[in-house]
Amino acid sequence: MLEAITLALPSRLAFCVWRRDMESWKRFAGSFFVAALGEPILYLLAIGYGLGRFVQDINGVPYAVFLAPGIIAAAAMNSASFESTFGAFTRMTEQHTYQAVLATPCSVGDLVGGDILWAATKSAASAALVLLITAASGLTPSWLALLTIPASLLIGLMFAGMGMIVTAKAPSYDFFTYYFTLAISVMFLFSGVFFPIESLPGWAQHLAWFLPLTHAVRLTRLLCEGIVGLECLYEVVWMASVTLGAFAVAERLVRKRLVV
Amino acid sequence: MHRSDRATRQGEANFGEVVDTKPHAGPTPVVEAEGLTKHYGSRIAVDRISLRVEAGACVGLLGPNGAGKTTTIRMLSCLTAPTAGSLRVLGMEMVAANHRAIKAQLGIVQQEDSLDPDLSVENNLLIYASYFGIPRREAAKRAQELMRFAQLTERRRDRIRDLSGGMRRRLMLARALINGPKLLLLDEPTTGLDPQARRLVWERIRRLKQHAVTILLTTHYMEEAANLCDRVVIIDHGKIVAEDAPETLVDSVIGEEVIEVYLPDSSASRGVLEKCRDFACRTEQVGEILYLYLRNGSARQRAFEALAGYRFTRRKPSLEDVFLSLTGHALRD
């Protein structure tokens, strides 16, 4: 256990890999802002205000206010998932970046750790941008909503770890279609982003517990409501555990694929 | 923390123009492989090879496609675990616990272009330096020196996509030197380059040799091996088939002279072969060309007599003759 934790702690070299990713990203910063802001705004407008007008208040709050934290969590999930699949796969195959990095004192752990950290950084940035919009529209009234930014870093780490596992196993870009359709889209729709999980039948609620996004949404919703307590801690521990497990598996699989 | 300390200390070594100029102390070979073997499932990529590379030497690993060159280089680079045999690099046993320490002192140029395409020339070097724990200021200084070495100073702010193939290769080489490596591993350093670009890379490698950098390179170009290497190791089907200085190999395997006889048709060889058997130290037929390898002047005299009426040319033998006669003319894919 101790070993798993020390392994997961980002090393100095992981931060070097993180910096490589960040420097390379600078040229594409423009498109990132468009994607990070555009999509959530469209969802908030179309679903939150458009559809929301026909929806009664949920737990005593207007629908758009209910939706906002879900969109924040989903933005964090999407950012990390894209970066750790398409982004990481490009570095692993076409650009041979992983090969170059492994020819230095960096280990597979440093490499995977740095890439996951970078994907999570993008998650936190995406979440911060969405939060800016929702706060400006009065959808997230509590100052504690600011805590959704560090929460999104954790959400990002978790989804980046999962994405990296898929990447390590991916034979080609097409493979990600399965992951995004069968995992990411399912979570987006059934993890409590758009409606409370409690409205699902009992068996489905149990299944939803296994979806990582469910816990991410619960955490961001609690924080946006200004509630910080044991419930939050529970979600943090749940996600941190999945993150550690995903990182350990991803590290192993990438090593198996590259160091042969 | 001790890891970055070590890298820093290494960083203080005088780079000369670009690299460590201090002669390597002690008689320990830089690479010492004994019975080195790599299996991929039932396929044997490298089959019990033994290899020594002395400090300051430039050794060439030659072989047809799939002979095991790259696998060997990967094992030396800590990127592939040997199936069997012993391997010491820079005096360290090749085990996982030593990988970081070994890699800290290696310079590796892999076959594929692995530069960061979205970074500038200079940033490629600086980011790479960070992986070795080289402090920022020192890294900036080395990047300057290495860009001069790679003749890329003018292009320092350019993106990699805007560079020619030759420039990229030179940058790959420069990047591999950022840590002042004690051993440089070059996997086909000039494949795909035009003759001008290739010659420039050779010239740079030669300059490294003058600074006593130990080099192990693989190549498909015999001219390259003959030009750069003090010693060549020819491997085929994962085994070493010959190993010596290029001239010595040519001398011992081929002889002094090659005569290429152009046969009217491939069945005409029998008659000529009959006549040449006594004086040619070796003969080989590929399609309608018959190769006669001659040991000395008197053999040449007899060859001229025997070949009266045939079309033929004579030339000095090269490493390519050695290579082809040892690994055969059959196409490898």
Quick rundown:
The complex is a heterodimer of chains A (260) and B (333). Chain A is mainly alpha-helical.
Q: Report the oligomer.
A: heterodimer
- Which class best fits the helix and strand makeup of chain A? mainly alpha
The radius of gyration of chain A is 18 Å
Count interface residues per chain for the largest interface.
A-B, 26 and 32 residues
* Classification by helices and strands of chain B: alpha/beta
| Overall outline of chain B | elongated
How many H/I helical runs of chain A? 11
Helix run count of chain B: 12
Number of strands of chain A: 0
- Strand content of chain B is 25-35%
Helical percentage of chain A: over 70%
Task: Give the neighbour order of strands across the main sheet of chain B.
Answer: 6-7-8-3-9-10
Helix/strand order of chain A, N-terminal first: HHHHHHHHHHH
Strand content of chain A: under 5%
Uncertain runs of chain A are: none
- Largest sheet entry of chain B: 6 strands, mixed
Q: If you average the pLDDT of chain A, what whole number results? A: 94
Number of strands of chain B: 14
Q: What separation lies between the terminal Cα atoms of chain A?
A: 27 Å
Fraction of helical residues of chain B: 25-40%
In N-to-C order, the SSE pattern of chain B is HEEEHEEHEHHHEHEHEEHEHEEHEH
